[in-house]
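Exercise 3.2. Students should predict the tertiary structure of the chain below and write it as structure tokens, then compare their answer with the key that follows.

Predict this chain's 3D structure.
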Amino acid sequence: MADPNGWIIAALTADGIFRVRGLQVGSASSDYTSAEIAERSARALGLSASIRNQTDTTVAAAVWTYNHLLWYGQSLSIGQESWPAKSKDPTPDVLMYGGCVRAVAASSTTYDAVGTATLQPMIAVVQNTNGTIMSDADVAALAPGAPNYGESPAEGAARFARRLFLQSRGVAAAPDSKFVVSVAGVSGMTIAKLSKGASPEYFNRLREAASKVKAASGAAGGTYGVAALFFMQGEADYYETHLSKADYKAALLQLRNDFVADVSAGISGQSDPPVFITYQTGGAYTEDGIAIGQAQYELSLENRGWYLAAPSYAVPDKGGHLGPNDSRWLGIQMGKVWHEVVVRRRGWRPTSPLQATWRGTTVLVDFHVPSPPLQFRPVYNGQTATSYLTKGFTVTDASGLVPITEVSIAGDAVVRITCARTLVAPVTVSYGQKSVHNGNGNLCDSDPTTSADVYSYTAGSGDYAAANISELVGKPYPLWNWCVQFVMGATAN
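Answer key:
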């Protein structure tokens, strides 16, 4: 029976749920029973365990005297605005080519060392616009927003990966297996501009970094190989080219294949390709369609030896660029994943959706959870801890945007989204949209891993005042695995 406005006054629907004026009364556990949810969660946890137990035999192990960890991408990969430097103490047997992990020129097609062209202990430094290394006093005098290059993710990744590497061997040192870190990225570049054959060909920076580190390794009397390519890019293709998911996937796959052919096979001469580790472009740079982020996530599912370590929204930022703590934090997370897949030879995916279904007013999303259970935590929107009402989730259906009344964790691996009205097919659920959540969300796992480095703030050093976050300062960086941004169709169930 309906009133003149079309509201259902009272009806028993085919699914056995009694509705009054569009509201449910007497439905068990918001359309899904607790038994159904428990079964879904158990299946998801079982699949998560099987993913972690997979062994990737395709990627190169760290078997050389000098294991090269190469980085490529745009501004976040090179630490633009990530000053002052934090990782200023050297880590034994972790090296760089010259006096900086970056080249002297920020955007040339060559890779020339800062200072003396030899293998030196790796430390983080801040570079002036001419590529030279700045003093602490000059760094402290930089104006907010100055684009100088400072702490890149590479230093934090190498330091943490080295710590885990030695622990896995049960040794205090391993001089027979050193790490060498080189960052070859160029700020502001689209994927097309970073690709082989572009003019100018910035891709040649990767060839030159590998060739020069290989020569230096040989001169030092050791063997050489490429143990990883870390790739951090996508921002320019969100705000400049607006590439489709398919086009970005094709371009990034080709870049990775060209790297293997030209660098790891062509220069290093190794038969096993290096692991390819990306992040997911997100936060302030994302768009509502999440095309680039979805492409990065899908490529990691479709290709062996390819891993998405973490979404970039998981750490604070300066409004886009990362501060030095933020850059180091994200790098440590990527170093953790390198250790998981290269040293431990375990499977890896970040927290990510497995399936979504809907019934009545409820959407259930099952997740791969690396370290159960799922949890909601405040995320840093810029440098402000933020808990979103819908935890980062958005639902649309045939009638448009669906109001959400509650998002809850219904099981160790299941999220329940309760909507304000009955859903109408087709239903789509997304997480981390730009317009609603600024590319962020509150969902992560419960990984207990913490870093050896701690979040630091020093007044007068160049640290932004907003980086003085009381709940972080002086504590190890937490390494929960945050959920990737995604858009997914939900199946009627």
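Discussion points: Confidence is low (pLDDT under 50) at residues 1-29. The CA atoms of residues 192 and 198 lie 7 Å apart.
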